[in-house]
Amino acid sequence: MIKAALVQHQHRASAQATWEALARACRQAADADCQLLLLQELHNGDYFCQREDCARFEAAEPVPGPTTERLGALAAELRLVIVGSVFERRGAGVYHNTAVVLDADGRLAGVYRKMHIPDDPGFYEKFYFTPGDLGFEPVETAVGRLGVLVCWDQWFPEAARLMALAGAELLLYPTAIGWDPCDDAEEQARQLDAWMTVQRGHAIANGLPLLACNRVGFEPTPDAPSGSPEAGIQFWGNSFICGPQGEILARAPADAEDLLIAEIDLRRSEQVRRIWPFLRDRRIDAYADLSKRWRD
Questions:
Q1: Could you give the CA distance from residue 56 to residue 1 in angstroms, rounded to a whole number?
Q2: What is the pTM of this model?
Q3: In this predicted model, what pLDDT tens digit does every residue of 63-93 receive, in sequence order?
Q4: Is 54 among the residues known to form the active site?
């Protein structure tokens, strides 16, 4: 049994204010005897991918670097495994959206570079991020083997399955997703329901607990034309933790910050996989066409 926490928060005006809020949440999680803490995607600042702006590359940093050093020191102090997010500068012109895992002793246990990169209105990530090249490899930590993926990866069942096949004991998704405020209430409800459903499906199909930590609050599009206050993203929160049958263990609100905490029994994965042996019954001899873009 492990106790896990997710930090769902709004963007703050300064990097220092953001860091102070994150550090407070980490300490609150440790005070609640949590052993694992997941932060949201690109938690150090605003979601800058709403616009293509070369000046934003100045915020990128190496890994290891300032963020991993600060998170590592906090992890060691609190004896807490922390999964964070970094806009990684790998080299001149090569940048990644990278999840970092700091073990309970403060060391950098592993990294995952986001594999699936979106390019949609308000989410112009292909301008900023090179697709990951580290594959789908779990990270060994004091609380178990973590299958860390990032945001857009959460829509692809192949990513979750490959993490499961490599021995992941938990699936974790730092996330930044929200609504276009121009969408009506019915469309917003459909999008949110789809987002939760597909991830709960990954948990069920692989017999694994899953943690998804999302941003919350409205972030306006930089340099939006005057007279269009709706321009921006309303991040929909709803961070959640579910078990290996997709059962919701904890869920955050859509419109407020939250430190979400739940206990996860890792032994249940073995029990669930015995009664629902999806991995046993996979027809791996018949799936070769999955490596094709399309079956013509």
A1: 41
A2: 0.95
A3: 999 999 999 999 999 999 999 999 999 999 9
A4: no
